[in-house]
Amino acid sequence: MLGFLLACGLRDVMPGGPVLEPSARDALEPGMGAALVDGQPVAYLTPPRVRFPVPALQVFGLRYDLDIVAVSDHPDFVMHELARITTTEGTRWIAKDSTVDREQCVATDIPGLYAWAAEVPVRRVASAMTVDDRSSGTEIDLSVSYTNCLGSPTRIDYRGPLPTQASRPRNGNTMGHSRRAVAALLDLFLFRAGGRIAVEIDGQRRKIVPLLGLAPQVYALAQVQGGFAVVDASMEGDETGFSLTRPGRDITWPTHAHEDWKVVEHGWLKRESPVATLLYHFVEGELDRALVTQQGEVVTEVVFSPRLPDVRRRFEGTAHSAFAVDINGQRGHGTGSVDVSWAGDDVSIDLVPTEPRWFADRPMHGTLAYEAGTAYLHMERIDVQDR
């Protein structure tokens, strides 16, 4: 099927392979050396502004055990998804509807919704949700009712075989979804096209839009999403860790949370949650690796070479690092660079994804400020031409 679609000129929406050859990915392993400015180790001019290690970027990762995807003819949406996620508190279901601007909105009945996976700052609405999962063996048989982000009652019924084969290739195209919130990469580790679906919104049955006028756009898959997210947060603590509050200053931020981050052994900084655990590794205050785990398995890994500088300490010039992102054990799904410098009293951070193409169109710019022992990190999406 993928070969047919590629032949039809749909390369801009189809998955790709790794963007780094194994040797190039191996060359970006951490431990390759201290942070550099103009090829020389960073010369720090001041002691640390705070006692706790400061992560200058927000990584994220999320594994969907099952994801039902459909494209309907509704004028306000370009895609509907039903996703099943395993957490330490049990199985959770979320509905994701992508509006015509390709921004995703999550509707679910998960308690504490605005703090749930708060590192992923997509819009979310609390909705009563009815899930009737009659699946058995190798067959999916599912009915879900909820109220979407526009306040419309929605029901989706799906029947079809469970996906059992990995997508070939697996480096999934994000197709522009949530471009304001995340620089995302995907691993489509299971994929099946087809199945019988009914989408009803506001009591009206919607038609499923065929691809190229041929096959209805209905898919059952399993995937991992990961990469970098925009962030607005404050951090306050000591050498044992810190309390992180989202948002830090932006009262319009879509998620709200208070998180406990701990310094653990061997240079690791750790935040646990029922959904995903975030881990950042520092060497003398310099960041060389970040991990996201879910149910004990690594779903996202980012390595920086050379290490990112210690952003608590002033230095002159611009520190430049390359990075690679592995998704669900698939090495080299994404690559790019990070530039860090001091601009007045604040730290300036520029994240520049370069490959694949759907990753490269999501650069970010951030600032890190210190006030009375508190660190404030804000990072937002910028347009490619504004880099």
Whole-angstrom Rg: 21 Å
**Count of β-strands:** 29
Q: Oligomerization state of this entry? A: single chain
The assigned structural class equals mainly beta
Query: Can you count the helices?
Result: 3
Instruction: Outline the biggest β-sheet.
Output: 12 strands, antiparallel, barrel
Which SSEs are present, and which pair or pack?
Elements: H1 2-7, H2 22-27, E1 36-37, E2 40-41, E3 58-70, E4 77-87, E5 90-99, E6 104-108, E7 123-126, E8 130-133, E9 139-147, E10 153-161, E11 171-172, E12 182-193, E13 196-201, E14 204-206, E15 210-211, E16 215-216, E17 218-229, E18 231-238, E19 241-246, E20 257-263, E21 268-271, E22 277-283, E23 286-294, E24 297-308, E25 318-327, E26 330-343, E27 346-355, H3 357-360, E28 364-371, E29 374-381
